[in-house]
Amino acid sequence: MVLTDEPLLRSPGLYLDGCWVRPVDGGTRAVHDPADGGVLTIVDEAGPADVSTAIAAARAAFATGDWPATPKAERSALLLRIAELLDAHRDDLARIETADTGKTLRESHLDIDDVIAVFRYYAHLVTIDTDRLVDTGNPAVISRVVHEPVGVCALIAPWNYPLLQMSWKIAPALAAGCTVVVKPSEVTPLSTIALVRLIDRAGVPAGVVNLVPGSGEVVGAALTDSPDVDLISFTGGASTGAEIASRAARHVTRVALELGGKNPHLVFADADPDSAVDAVLTGAFLHSGQVCSAGTRLIVHASIADEFVAELARRAAAIRVGPGRDPASQTGPLVSPEHRAKVEAYVALGLSEGARLVAGGRRPDDPALAAGSYYLPTIFDDCDRSMRIVQEETFGPILTVERFTTEAQAVALGNDTAYGLAAGVRTADPARGERVVRALRHGTVWLNDFGVYTPAAEWGGFGRSGIGRELGPTGLAEYQETKHLWHNTAPAVGGWFSTG
Ligand code: TXE
Predict the structure, then answer these.
(1) φ, ψ of residue 181 in degrees (nearest 5)
(2) What is the pLDDT of residues 394-439, one digit of tens each?
(3) Does the first or last residue of the chain, that is N or C, have fewer Cβ atoms within 10 Å of its Cβ?
(4) Which residues does ligand 1 sit against, CB inside 6 Å?
(5) Do 209 and 240 form a contact (C-beta atoms < 8 A)?
């Protein structure tokens, strides 16, 4: 597939201070189609000087521009215009996202719908007055707690949900009155370039949104090291997140981090078997497992485990892997050959650790798929918590299986991870369900469901899954400072240093 004629992706690709410009000290990069390895298009990438220009534009728009003081109703109206434009270009954006990430068109359409919903949600939320009056005990004092924009925000996104994850950042940042510098993953920059084109068309003031595609080493590092950035909001790998946090600490720059997970899916013996198998399968293999909340650790009651795993293996082997643009495909390729090599190394590791392969464990045989980064849904049985494939995020279509016999054991296994992003529980017993969801130390816990979310509820992790929350009111608060205003309406001499 070739996207060079796509109107939403017309070069040049840096958006600085309200203008589309060529990089001063950056370069270009070929963006590849994971379905067949072909070149989709060439994009411009920023260099350090371009990043400085972007930050300076965002700083000027924040310090001397109107955006932070623009009435909330006007900021809300801009978000709604962006949502309308996204809606009008839903099919174009889905086509671009599928070409760039490999995910199926059906998934891309769902992503775009969620993106639209996020812009609409923050357009609504920002109009709600959250100022708080405080009773100081002194009737002459009016004490108020108010919320103001944080300032210049660097927004750094990964490649698995490029448009969705960037929108979870851009929408609340703009709603709050911040100005932003946006860096998509160098692997999948296209839908973000298209989004910024639509934001430009929606009439965002110059400097409020700036786009600097490029690598993490150059563009990401320049953003992270800048003393003129007030907040870095990052979604990506745990080690990159730790690196960003430590570099940001030198300037005491705020960070918001979403760093993935190793998410347990607990299945009790009384769970409805059909919906449980279906949910475990979808949780593990949707988007070929390249999902931060993928349910990659099945923890199943020993009494049903053999039958449950056999059914899972049968169903996994029947998943139709193929190009995302083919409506017959149920899941697409991995994002790149490099990422598939990482997944293959984890499969080799699992075998060497003694796990028993019961499905997949190899590339598809179909010669028509040979040029793409495909990998079959893979299941390892007989796993235990000492194995690295049970503890580390593989970010591929790999499901591990552990068994339990008591509720306490299931909870202990579910919490035995350095991460804590998401977990699922399946049981027909509501009392047990409530006990277990409260005992699990994860940011989202689903009972008899998996992988679903709403823009109105917070998303983020315990432990090494990150710092802070996206979505919901907390997702807006990430982009706000809290200020206490104390107004004495009857000033009088205090007399502390009275000379009398
Ligand atoms: O992500 P990186 P990678 C996990 C998953 C995956 C692993 C590595 O396990 O296998 O991370 O993936 C930018 N300063 N997740 O290497 O490096 C980079 O350009 C500033 C989980 O692709 O974290 C990109 O824009 N920025 C995750 C973004 O960080 C830097 C989704 C993410 O890239 C940077 C994706 C630096 N020094 C991968 N280095 C999730 N939480 O959902 C890189 N970047």
Answers:
(1) -120, 125
(2) 999 999 999 999 999 999 999 999 999 999 999 999 999 999 999 9
(3) C
(4) 156-160, 183, 185-186, 215-216, 220-221, 224, 235-237, 240, 243-244, 258-260, 292, 342, 393, 395
(5) no
